[in-house]
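Illustration: V-type proton ATPase subunit E.
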Amino acid sequence: MNDADVSKQIHQMVQFIRQEADEKANEISVSAEEEFNIEKLQLVEAEKKKIRQEYDRKQKQVEVRKKIEYSMQLNASRIKVLQAQDDLVSAMREAASKDLLNVSHHHHHYEGLLKSLIVQGLLRLKEPSVLLRCRKEDVHMVNTVLHAAKAEYAEKAHVHPPEIIVDSIHLPSAPSHNDPHALSCSGGVVLASRDDPQAVV
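Result:
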């Protein structure tokens, strides 16, 4: 084999080695590109997941804040309504107390009111023996209407007239201009079962 043949053969071997090297390099490049794309996709998905989780967390915080704010506004509204109801009840109580005080100064009307209150109390208690408490200044008027009240109750309830004991302990007297904050009572009566003093009307 002469030098030209040897040189040609060497050149062919170098070409073959280069071709194999190029193919291998190309395979490595393609494989590296695939791995890079896979890793990049995984990183992107991981970041997307983090972003979604962060968004969900913030959305839940917003929802919780909204619920808290709504609850606070609802409670504030309820407090206003309750305050308004309380003010109205207080005003009605005060007005009723003044009206009752005015009625108590008109003996004829007040006697009729006392009798009606005693009958209503007896109808609610439905007891054969009752303790009645009134203001000290109303004792005489209560004793005046007591018999008629018992008879009316007995007729309405279809029972025997009950025993009514007028208590020696009295309700507070009418409000005083000298001491408007003192415990007072504008009038009326309180009835309780003698067997169960907690049952009061």
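Reading the tokens back as a structure: The mean pLDDT is 87.
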